[in-house]
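Sat 14:20. Reprocessing the chain from the morning session after the first attempt stalled halfway. Input below, unchanged.
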Amino acid sequence: MYWVRVSDLDKLVRRFRENGLCVGRHSYSYRLFYKGKVVAGLHLYPGYREASLRLYRVHRDLAEAVRELIIMVIRDVFPDYKIVVKWYPPGNP
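Finished this time. C-alpha cells:
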C-alpha cells in the first residue's frame, strides 16, 4: 500500500494557491476555483498512484485557461502519479 503524508496533501493546496487558484480540501478530494468560479474537482487515489481531475463544462473557458497549470502543479507535488483528465458532465462540448 502506498501512503501519502498529510504535509504533501497540504503542499498541493499551497502550490495551487501560489499559482492563483482558490482551493478547498477534504481528505483526498479538492475543489478548485478560478476567478470566483468552480472549475475543477480533483481526487487522489494513493493506492493506485492516480489523480482524477474533473474539469467542469459549466465554466469551460475558465477551466481550459487553467487546465495545464493544474496538471503542472499535480506533477510537481506527485510526480509519479498518473493523471486522468475528464470533462464533467461527459459528452460533447
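The first helix runs from residue 6 to 18.
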